[in-house]
Each structure stands twice: as C-alpha cells, then as structure tokens.
Amino acid sequence: MIRVLIADDQPLVRTGLTALLTAELDIEVVGVARDGTQALTMARELVPDVACLDIRMPGRSGIEVARELCAPHADPQVPVLVLTTFDLDDYVFGALEAGASGFLLKDSEPDDIVSAVRQVAAGRGTIDQTLTRRILSEFVHRRRLQPVAGRRVEELLTPREHDILLLLAEGMSNDDIARRLVVEVSTIKSHLARMLPKLGVTSRLQAVVWAYQNHVVAVPEQERTH
C-alpha cells in the first residue's frame, strides 16, 4: 500500500486529490495538510511514501518543505511529488534543486497523477511531459547544480555507477536497470545510495539532470531546438 500525504491550501484541490487517490486500491491517503508548516509536521510524524505538495502555500512553500524532507540529513527522508498550476521555470528548477522526485501540473490527466504517485513511490522520478524538453535544454546551461569537468566523472564514479547513471538518463526504473545489468534490484539500490552523494544530489531525478548538465549524456538535438 502506498501511503500518501497531500498538502494544498485550496480545499477543492485537497478534496479532489484525496478522492482521486483513495479510489485506487494500492494507495492510501494518510494525511491532508492545508499549508506548508502543517505539511512538514505531518510528514515527519506520518512518514508517508510520497508527499504531494503544492508549490505556493501559506507558512512554507512546497519548495521549502521539499528541501527539508529531501535533504541528505533529513530524518526521515520523504519522497516529494510537486503538483502545481504554475509551469514557470524557476518553480520547476527550485523543486528539482530542493530534491523533489517529481514535478507535475495539476491540470494533468487523473491517470497521469496516479501514475506519478506510483512512480515516485517506486523510486522513479517524473516530470510533466509538456515540460521535459524545455527543462532538459535550459537546466543544462544553468549552474545551480555544480558542474564538474568531464574527466572527473570517471574519477567520481565506478564503471558500474557510470553505467547505472546512463540507464537512469534513459528513464529506466530500478527493476529495468537490474534486468539490463543482470543483477538484483537490491544491488542497484546499493549503488544508487553510494552514487548520489558523490554527485552532490539527493534524488534520481537530480542525478539525471546532473548527467545532462555535465555532458555525461547529451541533450538530443531535437530537444535543444525547442
């Protein structure tokens, strides 16, 4: 059962998301918060599998809450899915830099929202597909995640970690990567636990952005032109 916390300052949105998610047999809404401060408190008490946070909330913004819940030293760490009506780049970048595992627009299809919750709970990052091309092309040229010289990548990562990073950039899940590399899923998780701190990131999604930004993976030409 996937345990979810919902945080939004709009009652209608809270009610709608709760109804949408509780209709799924494998999802349970364990808490509903009306502002960022309450969301942070409830997340620490309930330790949900996913915290669905609005960007703009009274008290603390979703980005501030994500920064607290996703930090390397956070205890407990809670995966965050940001749901917002705003697709402004600064909000998207802020959410990614805070360590959020996903970013989705509220006007996404209901099935896409449910799928995003499952993906984040399973350890897979997600970004609204309407934003992906712009995010990849623009984030690569921003220095908010500290780039490193290309030659240092080989020094930072083991050959197996490098392979895993490339597969993450293809959008593969832990299960997919384990099958490709013919190892146990637990082995992939162990590699990720060692790899993320080396890159100075806190989520799989940040690791993928890091890979593009540091030219470990090239942004496809068609995506650069959009």
What can you tell me about this protein's structure?
- The protein is of the alpha/beta class.
- The protein folds into two domains: 2-127, Rossmann fold (3-Layer(aba) Sandwich), CATH 3.40.50; 144-224, Rossmann fold (3-Layer(aba) Sandwich), CATH 3.40.50.2300.
- It has twelve helices and six strands.
- It has helices at residues 11-22, 36-46, 62-70, 89-97, 110-121, 129-139, 150-156, 159-169, 174-181, 185-199, 204-213, 221-224; strands spanning 2-7, 27-33, 50-54, 80-84, 102-105, 126-127.
- The protein has a six-stranded parallel beta sheet with strand order 2-1-3-4-5-6, sandwiched between helices.
- The longest helix is centred in the last third of the chain and has 15 residues, at 185-199.
- The protein is globular and about 50 Å long.
- The model is unreliable at 222-226 (pLDDT under 50).
Under CATH, the topology of the largest domain can be stated as Rossmann fold
CATH class annotation of the largest domain: Alpha Beta
Q: Specify the CATH homologous superfamily of the largest domain.
A: Response regulator
- In whole angstroms, how far apart are the ends? 39 Å
- Strand segment count: 6
**Sequence of secondary-structure elements:** EHEHEHEHEHEHHHHHHH
Total tally of structural domains: 2
Cα Rg: 17 Å
Q: Poorly predicted ranges (pLDDT <50, ≥5 residues)?
A: 222-226
Enumerate how many helices there are, as a single number.
12
Nearest-integer average pLDDT? 83
CATH architecture of the largest domain: 3-Layer(aba) Sandwich
Assign the structural class, choosing from mainly alpha, mainly beta, alpha/beta, alpha+beta, or little secondary structure. Answer: alpha/beta
Shape summary = globular
